[in-house]
Structures are given as structure tokens and as C-alpha cells.
């Protein structure tokens, strides 16, 4: 009894560590190893500090317009938020309001079940296949909504647009959210389908491919009606979420497409090189199309490798969870960082 009986008790999401030691090779939270576009720095220098006394534009119009122009959609089809976590959280609150369970994979972004629990949304997880693919049939049943990342996290596995389209087409009475946090590393986006299916919401982020995790910018694109409902919920929650520097610097990032392509291209090239080297060392992994690898070793348990790497100031991510306890999720760093990572593995595995 007492005051605690009326409290909303939740088990929070556990994010990867942000170590204080600057010497660490940080391959544990899928950040970009390169800085943001130089245009972002320039935009920061131009921010009028006197303007900070005013509330920011609650519609973040400048950023919304830049995104709409870049993706060739209408501004009314774009919603922005404080990281895609904010956007996804609002989308759960807005769209998953039925009594049937929301469906998502058993191995996926571990924030989904946290939001479902927080908002008391019923959900059901659908087991991925042995090689971590989605089984389409699992999503062709009555449900209260669908969400999954493409490529999936932490597996890096990319699904075909045609398969996702079948899921969207078969579920036009609910909202289907495709979380494309990692789509810019070689995947094909389902964005062109938003004009064909009113029930599709595509969510992306500035945190990985645009190297701005620290600014906290995410966005969703979809049918105007969906975006309107999302805004209604958002403006019933907190109007002024995006601050002025984020709007200015985010807009600058969108305008530097050459830098964006160069950075993602470098990460893809490093990823493919590291795959070859790790294979030689006895690792097995999914054919990741994201900015991380999901790898295990044929002889050495992942938990042991995780600890050994950490003792040597190389941080990767490890979950002691069913089905994935013998895998590490390794963010792709710079070539130099990855060479040091590989060098450590070579010497560790030889001793
Ligand atoms: N979706 C997926 C699949 C992710 O891995 C992440 C990163 N943790 C996010 C969304 C959220 O990223 P952010 O809030 O930085 O945009």
C-alpha cells in the first residue's frame, strides 16, 4: 500500500554505454565515426544567440521543408522529433491504440516492448527464422499494428521491399511502421510506397548516416492523414521539443548530399572489408546492410570476447539473451579503428 500503488512502474530501455575515457574505441552504439558535414559547423556559427530567448518554431518548418525537398514529398507528409526514439514513441502512442496485439520480431530493437509496456499496448513477438529473416506469414494475421526495422537491429538483416509491400498491403486496417534507422548503408527504402498505402509510416534518423546522434533529430514520412494524427498527439504532449540549434544544424546537414554520400560510402566500404577479414579469423555473421556487424566466433564464446575487448578499451555490444547470446554487435568505425580491432582479435585468437 501507500503512494507506490498508483505509480506507473516501467522497466526502462537500456542504452549502450557512453564511456568517459577518451581512449576507448567505441563500437557499441552505432554512431557514425566521422564528424557531421562542415555545413553543420557553419550553421552552428551563424546561430543568433539572442534568438534563444524565444521559443523555437514548434513546426520546425525549415527542417521539415528541407526534408520534404530532399525526399520529394510534401511538407505535410513529414513529422520531425527529438531523435527517432521520440518519433517512434509518439507513433506508438498515436497509432497502436487497439485491443489486438501489435506485432514485431522476437529479435529487434529493444525499445519496442518498452514503449508497448509504457503505454499499455498489447503486443506479440514473431520469431525470426534461423538466419534472422522475417517470416511474412506471421504478419498476415489479425493484429493491432506492425513495426520492424529494415535493416533489422541488432542483426543487420535487410528485407526485400516486395516482401514488405505484401505485409503493408495485407494490413490496410492498421498502421505499419518501418523503422529505417539504418537504411542509408545499402538498403532500399520503402518510402516510395507512402503514396500508394495510407497505412505506411517510414521513420528515419540523423543519428547514424548523418553523424548527428548528439543533436537528437529523427523524422517520419507518410500519408498526410497519419502525419496530422501524429502532430495532434505530439501537440497534446509537448509542443516545443525541437530546439533552435537542432533545426538550423539539421537543415544544413540535409543540404550537404555530397558529404552524406561520401560518409555512408566510406562506412559501407569499411564494413565489406571487415567482413572479409573477420571471416578469415573464424567469425560467422549475417550479411549486414547496416553500419554494424552481428558476429559470432566458431570457437570462442561471444561473452568472453566481449569482456576481453572491453578490458582492452574496445567497446562493442553484447546481449546475454535467448538466441543471440553468442553474437556481438560491432559498429563500423573508421578504417584505423577497425584495423586496431582486427589486430586485437588476431592476437587474442592466436593465444
Ligand atoms: N531505431 C533503431 C532500430 C535503432 O537502433 C535506434 C538507435 N538506438 C533508433 C531507432 C533510435 O535512434 P535515435 O533516437 O538516435 O534516432
From TrEMBL:
The keyword Secreted does not apply. Its EC number is 2.6.1.9. It catalyses: L-histidinol phosphate + 2-oxoglutarate = 3-(imidazol-4-yl)-2-oxopropyl phosphate + L-glutamate. CDD domains: AAT_like (cd00609). InterPro entries: Aminotrans_II_pyridoxalP_BS, Aminotransferase_I/II_large, HisP_aminotrans, HistidinolP_aminotransfase, PyrdxlP-dep_Trfase, PyrdxlP-dep_Trfase_major, PyrdxlP-dep_Trfase_small. Residues 23-344 form the Aminotransferase class I/classII large domain. Pathway: Amino-acid biosynthesis; L-histidine biosynthesis; L-histidine from 5-phospho-alpha-D-ribose 1-diphosphate: step 7/9. The modification N6-(pyridoxal phosphate)lysine is found at residue 208. Pfam families: Aminotran_1_2. Keywords: Amino-acid biosynthesis, Aminotransferase, Histidine biosynthesis, Pyridoxal phosphate, Transferase. GO terms for molecular function: histidinol-phosphate transaminase activity. Its cofactor is pyridoxal 5'-phosphate. Coiled coil: none annotated. The keyword Ion transport does not apply. Belongs to the class-II pyridoxal-phosphate-dependent aminotransferase family. Histidinol-phosphate aminotransferase subfamily. Homodimer. This is Histidinol-phosphate aminotransferase. It comes from Suilimivivens aceti.
Amino acid at each position: 500500500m501507500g503512494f507506490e500503488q498508483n505509480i506507473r512502474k516501467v522497466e526502462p530501455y537500456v542504452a549502450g554505454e557512453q564511456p568517459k575515457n577518451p581512449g576507448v574505441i567505441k563500437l557499441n552504439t552505432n554512431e557514425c565515426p566521422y564528424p557531421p558535414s562542415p555545413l553543420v559547423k557553419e550553421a552552428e556559427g551563424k546561430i543568433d544567440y539572442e534568438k534563444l530567448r524565444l521559443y523555437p518554431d514548434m513546426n520546425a518548418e525549415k527542417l521539415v521543408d528541407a526534408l520534404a525537398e530532399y525526399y520529394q514529398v510534401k511538407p505535410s507528409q513529414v513529422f520531425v522529433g527529438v531523435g527517432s526514439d521520440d518519433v517512434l514513441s509518439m507513433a506508438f502512442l498515436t497509432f497502436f491504440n487497439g485491443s489486438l496485439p501489435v506485432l514485431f520480431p522476437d529479435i529487434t530493437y529493444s525499445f519496442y516492448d518498452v514503449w508497448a509496456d509504457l503505454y499499455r499496448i498489447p503486443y506479440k513477438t514473431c520469431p525470426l527464422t534461423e538466419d534472422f529473416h522475417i517470416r511474412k506469414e506471421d504478419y498476415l494475421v489479425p493484429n493491432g499494428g506492425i513495426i520492424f526495422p529494415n535493416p533489422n537491429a541488432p542483426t543487420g538483416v535487410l528485407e526485400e521491399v516486395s516482401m514488405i509491400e505484401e505485409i503493408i498491403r495485407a494490413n490496410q486496417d492498421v498502421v505499419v511502421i518501418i523503422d529505417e534507422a539504418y537504411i542509408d548503408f545499402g538498403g532500399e527504402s520503402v518510402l516510395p510506397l507512402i503514396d500508394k498505402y495510407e497505412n505506411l509510416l517510414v521513420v528515419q534518423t540523423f543519428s547514424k548516416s548523418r553523424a548527428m546522434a548528439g543533436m537528437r533529430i529523427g523524422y517520419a514520412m507518410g500519408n498526410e492523414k497519419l502525419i496530422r494524427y501524429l502532430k495532434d498527439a505530439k501537440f497534446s504532449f509537448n509542443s516545443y521539443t525541437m530546439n533552435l540549434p537542432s533545426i538550423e544544424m539539421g537543415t544544413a546537414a540535409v543540404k550537404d548530399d555530397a558529404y552524406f554520400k561520401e560518409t555512408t560510402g566510406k562506412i559501407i566500404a569499411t564494413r565489406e572489408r571487415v567482413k572479409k577479414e573477420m571471416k578469415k579469423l573464424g567469425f560467422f555473421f549475417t550479411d549486414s546492410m547496416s553500419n554494424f556487424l552481428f558476429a559470432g566466433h566458431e570457437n570462442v564464446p561471444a561473452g568472453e570476447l566481449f569482456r576481453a575487448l572491453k578490458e582492452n578499451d574496445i567497446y562493442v555490444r553484447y546481449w546475454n539473451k535467448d538466441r543471440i547470446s553468442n553474437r556481438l554487435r560491432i559498429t563500423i568505425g573508421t578504417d584505423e579503428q577497425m584495423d586496431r580491432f582486427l589486430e586485437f582479435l588476431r592476437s587474442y585468437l592466436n593465444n
